[in-house]
Design a protein that fits this description.
It is a single chain. The protein is α+β, with helices and mostly antiparallel strands and 604 residues long. Helix content is 24%, strand content 41%. It has helices at 2-22, 457-485, 487-493, 495-511, 515-534, 543-553, 557-575, 577-580, 584-599; strands spanning 26-30, 34-36, 40-48, 53-56, 63-80, 83-98, 102-106, 110-113, 116-119, 123-128, 162-168, 172-174, 179-187, 190-198, 205-209, 218-222, 225-239, 243-247, 251-264, 267-280, 284-289, 299-313, 317-318, 323-333, 349-351, 355-363, 366-379, 383-387, 390-396, 401-407, 410-415. The strands form eight sheets. Strands 22, 24, 25, 26, 27, 29 and 30 form a seven-stranded mixed sheet that branches. Strands 11, 13, 15, 16 and 17 form a five-stranded antiparallel sheet that branches. The protein has a four-stranded antiparallel sheet with strand order 1-3-6-5, with helices on one face. A hairpin with a 2-residue loop joins β16 (218-222) and β17. The protein is extended and about 120 Å long.
């Protein structure tokens, strides 16, 4: 019996080895993307499901090898539902010290398996310069991201160790030329909570916001120091006027993690401590150049690089049957804001206003896609007609010149279609030249009246009514002028109406399941509503003065609490959507109910 068990175990072992050998062989490399100069780092090369030899390691520039390669081998075998699976791996580990700052490409390593050579992928590594505070003679000064001992709670949080920065991809662009704006958090501490109390404003720009999931997953060397960096907001801006445009600063509440040294029965240990600080970002400016003059007559505001196509459908045309002329502009730039071109259709066509369809999305530092303009027309008469050629002109900022595309014309041959009441069969061509009807004959039911109309009540009523209407208009006009002169009163009066429009846009984003734009629109609606209702500019609003101003306005504590709760929910969901767990429909209903409640609150 024991002998049979031994044979069975041997058989299992042989089958496992066969499975390991017959599995998919792979040779991969793994290493860090970034490392600070002077620090150690390791690179691992892993051979799976094979046994190899003649491992050839690459030379790593900018670093010194400390030891390696160290070889470790592992095997695994599984039985699942009567099926066996086996795997094996050989791992070669090498340890290096980063010596010289720069970006380096680590060449592939090679290994031989049963006479066949396998090659790993190359790796990119960035060696960052050390912090200035870590230079010789200043080891105990400054906070460092790679040294937890320097992140003591005894050190106050300052603007050098934690700040928010607005960064522009270009400092000088033309009107309508795309420029990327990135708002980044720079920190030497881990962050447990981040809340926006005041969003930066982008006056003078059209915004195309890019989807982001902020996380501290990158290290950046800035002003001689290394920071963990998270992108909080990234958007493509299209300036709408020339001159110097400024993006105002934003305000943020940040909770950072520092450490206290605490004595315990097991010795001295580090204990995390949360420290709160208010951070204000910088302001960023861009010089906007006006588009060169003179502008071509066919230029309608397109800036970027574009191409144009045009076609007519269907292939055969009949009178009184609808057809479509499609004009498509494709390319990159302000594609979403291109105006419909003016097409001169033959006068024998009934033409309707064009319908536009935009299919575009951010790509790199601009927006790419297409805008389609569809002109619906109905031929009225039989014959051959031409939809004339047209020109589309755009400004190419990279070439600093206007480019004109000639769009060829389209010939249309119209056959006779189904008769209509307005133009029966055989009469459609004849009716072109008939615009005078025959004189009416027969009994005209004429009568004579010799009474004095001036003595009738109806005569004087025609004087009284206009006078009363004129007096009413003058009274209403004077009242309207008086109200409109009070700008703040008009804002307060229409606050709810404006907010409802923004909520309607937010609802569209909610139905499209676009949480980033939904929460941004809700915040814009609430802040704008409170600004108009409380007669306070948006730039001066914050959670503290909102509470006091709402109480002075007449809102109770419950209503004030609801306002602050909605702001907190939206801001948290916007910058940490994976942690918020907030339901968009619930937030939408709460915002709408809150505005209705404040509208019904009587001002003190």
């Amino acid at each position: 019996m024991v002998k049979k068990k031994g044979i069975l175990l041997l058989l299992i072992f042989i089958l496992s080895g066969a499975a390991a050998v017959s599995g998919q062989v792979s040779f991969t490399a793994d290493g860090p993307r970034q490392v600070v100069q002077g620090n150690k780092f390791s690179i691992r090369y892993i051979l799976r499901n094979a046994e190899g030899d003649n491992f050839n390691e690459p030379t790593v520039e900018g670093a010194t090898k400390l030891y390696g390669p160290a070889l470790s081998t592992s095997y695994s075998h599984e039985w699942v539902n009567g099926k066996s699976s086996s795997s094996s791996s050989q791992e070669y580990s090498l340890m290096y010290r980063a010596d010289k700052a720069g970006t380096y490409t680590i060449p592939p390593a090679t290994i031989d398996v049963d006479g066949k050579r396998y090659t790993s992928k190359s790796l990119e590594i960035e060696i960052l310069p050390p912090d200035k505070s870590a230079s010789a003679g200043s080891q105990s000064q400054g906070v460092r991201i790679d040294d937890i001992d320097t992140q003591s709670a005894s050190k106050p949080l300052n603007s050098k160790d934690l700040f928010v920065r607005i960064e522009m991809s270009k400092q000088k662009v033309y009107e309508q030329e795309a420029v990327v704006c990135t708002i980044k958090l720079y920190t030497k501490y881990q962050i447990s909570q981040f809340m926006t109390t005041l969003q930066p404003s982008f006056d003078g720009f059209l915004i195309e916001e890019l989807p982001l999931s902020p996380s501290l997953n990158n290290v950046e060397h800035y002003n001689g120091e290394n920071y963990m960096v998270a992108e909080l907001k990234k958007c493509i801006l299209f300036p709408q006027k020339s001159g110097k445009l400024t993006i105002t600063s934003g305000n943020y509440d940040v909770t950072a993690i520092q450490y206290d040294m605490v004595r315990s029965l097991f010795g001295t240990i580090r204990q995390p401590v949360e420290s709160k600080v208010q951070v204000k970002s910088n302001s960023a400016s861009v010089n906007i150049l006006p588009l060169p003059s003179p502008k071509p007559a066919s230029f309608s505001g397109a800036v970027g690089q574009f191409s144009v196509t045009a076609n007519v459908k269907p292939d055969k045309f009949k009178t009184y049957e609808a057809a479509t002329y499609t004009y498509t502009v494709s390319g990159s730039g302000n594609i979403k804001y291109i105006k419909a071109p003016e097409i001169h259709f033959p006068s024998q066509f009934d033409v309707y206003d064009p319908q536009s369809t935009v299919e575009a999305k951010p790509s790199g530092s601009t927006v790419k896609g297409s805008t389609k303009f569809e002109y619906t027309f109905i031929p009225q008469y039989v014959g051959d007609y031409e939809i004339p050629s047209s020109e589309f002109t755009y400004f190419d900022p990279s070439a600093t010149k206007y480019v004109t595309i000639n769009v060829p014309g389209q010939m249309v041959s119209v056959a006779k279609g189904v008769a209509t009441a307005a133009a029966p069969v055989g009469k459609d061509i004849e009716l072109q030249n008939k615009d005078i009807l025959h004189i009416k004959t027969g009994d005209l039911s004429l009568s004579k009246n010799h009474g004095m109309y001036i003595s009738s009540f109806a005569y004087w009523l025609w004087y009284i009514i206009p006078v009363l209407v004129l007096l009413s208009i003058m009274w209403y006009y004077r009242k309207s002028l008086k109200e409109r002169s009070n700008i703040q009163m008009m804002k307060t009066k229409h606050a709810n109406k404006v907010a409802k429009k923004r909520l309607k846009q937010a609802k569209a984003f909610m139905q499209a399941n676009d949480s980033n734009k939904f929460y941004a629109e809700i915040l814009k609606a609430v802040w704008g509503y409170l600004s108009d209702k409380l007669s306070i500019p948006v730039s001066e609003l914050n959670k503290e003065n909102i509470t006091s101003e709402l109480e002075r306005f007449g809102a109770d504590e419950v209503a004030v609490g609801e306002v602050i709760a909605i702001l907190d929910k939206c801001e948290f969901a916007q910058y940490a959507p994976e942690l918020s767990g907030t339901d968009m429909n619930e937030v939408y209903e709460e915002a709408s109910e809150m505005m209705n409640k404040l509208e019904n609150t009587k001002k003190r």
